[in-house]
Amino acid sequence: MKEDKMNRFKMEMEALSENEGFARVCVAAFVTRLDPTLEEINDVKTAVSEAVTNSVIHGYGGNGGKIIIECSVENNTMEVMIKDFGKGIADVEKAMEPMYTTDALHERSGMGFTFMEVFMDELQVVSEKGGGTTVIMKKTFGRITE
């Protein structure tokens, strides 16, 4: 019987919109070892896209900065952490409400955290105004449904 071990990767990238696709593909490729379904892969890619986009747009206002992504796999569970060092969120609970957005031009739907919650099994958001934001998401693959 194969012994399960934790495996992880960490990367740092510029907070640019064009890097969002790279981030989602890296995380998706990393979890392929868990033999996910296409739906599970798409869930992960969507959640990662939302978290990275939030960092680029809301954390840094589209002006660049640094995003760190750490991903680990243990047994059949993946954890991904996406961290920025941007302006942070004053009221995380309010920001996580569906349709809430700070976008005065109404170009954003305010559904980013909602999508992350729906597509992942666990979501934790840690932030402080002026102190950046860390999003931690978990997903278990291959769960047997009854």
TrEMBL record:
Keywords: ATP-binding, Kinase, Nucleotide-binding, Serine/threonine-protein kinase, Sporulation, Transferase. Its EC number is 2.7.11.1. It is an enzyme of class 2 (transferase). The keyword DNA damage does not apply. One of its GO terms (molecular function) is protein serine/threonine kinase activity. It catalyses: L-seryl-[protein] + ATP = O-phospho-L-seryl-[protein] + ADP + H(+); L-threonyl-[protein] + ATP = O-phospho-L-threonyl-[protein] + ADP + H(+). Pfam families: HATPase_c_2. GO terms for biological process: asexual sporulation; negative regulation of sporulation resulting in formation of a cellular spore; sporulation resulting in formation of a cellular spore. Residues 39-143 form the Histidine kinase/HSP90-like ATPase domain. Gene3D superfamilies: Histidine kinase-like ATPase, C-terminal domain. It comes from the Bacteria. Belongs to the anti-sigma-factor family. PANTHER family: ANTI-SIGMA-F FACTOR RSBW (PTHR35526:SF3), ANTI-SIGMA-F FACTOR RSBW-RELATED (PTHR35526). Binds to sigma F and blocks its ability to form an RNA polymerase holoenzyme (E-sigma F). Phosphorylates SpoIIAA on a serine residue. This phosphorylation may enable SpoIIAA to act as an anti-anti-sigma factor that counteracts SpoIIAB and thus releases sigma F from inhibition. HAMAP family: Anti_sigma_F. This is Anti-sigma F factor.
